[in-house]
Design a protein that fits this description.
- With 234 residues, this protein is α/β, with parallel strands linked by helices.
- The chain has two domains: 134 residues, 3-Layer(aba) Sandwich (Rossmann fold), CATH 3.40.50; 75 residues, Arc Repressor Mutant, subunit A.
- Helix content is 54%, strand content 12%.
- The protein has a five-stranded parallel beta sheet with strand order 2-1-3-4-5, with helices on both faces.
- α2 runs parallel beside α3 and α8 crosses α11.
- It is globular.
Length: 234
């Protein structure tokens, strides 16, 4: 969906991506009320977002991470490949301590939790449009601390960090109680592909059986307070 009346040349053009129409409507009201921002298009999934981005050439894409079919991380990678230099901000319910680094590595320029207020969201938007990168002060402090006290050479990384984005997503969904078949449907993958990813997760994290992997995934999700509700809405 695109409205030329919302695209004055003096304003930055924004593409909004979220699978919840109410959320899109709320974002649109906020952005279009700003003197320097204008929504040029909205999309409810990755294919629609790519089509809109190629057509509208927005200055900024604001996207959720959880989308039907293709994940937000995959969308970010696709957009950066198709439109180098495109600025992307993630707004998600997923804990930034777990997802922000992956989003930035995929090509996003910022990460904001959905629980943040409008002022924080708009500050992130303008910082990114100005050429900067935005993460919360808490996450920035944690990253700085990690660099300041970096591990000795040869030390082992967390097993979770060894997982690819897709493997991490599947591991989390197992932890939320999803079956392999349900994960395949949700991620638009074949059951065989999910099984292959499951085997890679077991190998990378040194689990002997699938049952052990699933038990640890459930424990990991509980430890990080990721609920089933957040997984579906984030």
């Amino acid at each position: 969906m695109s409205d030329s009346t919302f695209q004055p040349t003096s304003k930055f053009r924004v593409l909004l991506v979220d699978d919840h129409p109410v959320v899109l409507g709320g974002y649109r009201l906020i952005f279009d009320a700003q003197p320097d921002l204008a929504v040029c298009a909205v999309a409810g999934d990755a294919p629609a977002a790519i089509t809109a981005a190629e057509r509208e050439k927005p200055d900024l894409v604001v996207t959720d991470l959880t989308l039907p079919g293709r994940s937000g991380l995959d969308l970010i990678k696709d957009l950066v490949a198709l439109l180098p230099g495109l600025k992307i901000l993630v707004i998600s319910m997923h804990d930034e301590q777990l997802w922000a680094e992956r989003a930035l590595k995929a090509g996003a320029k910022g990460y904001v939790m959905k629980e943040s207020d409008n002022a924080t969201m708009l500050a992130a938007v303008r910082q990114i449009l100005g050429g900067g990168i935005y993460v919360s002060p808490a996450l920035a402090a944690r990253v700085f601390s990690a660099f300041a006290s970096s591990r000795p050479r040869g030390s082992t990384e967390s097993p979770i960090q060894k997982l690819s984005d897709r493997e991490f997503e599947i591991f989390r969904l197992f932890g939320l109680g999803k079956t392999a078949k349900e994960i395949a449907v949700q991620l638009n993958l074949s059951p065989k592909t999910v099984s292959v990813h499951r085997d890679h997760i077991k190998e990378k994290m040194s689990y002997e059986t699938s049952a052990e992997m699933i038990r640890q995934a459930v424990r990991w999700v509980e430890t990080h307070q990721l609920s089933s509700s957040a997984g579906e809405q984030g």
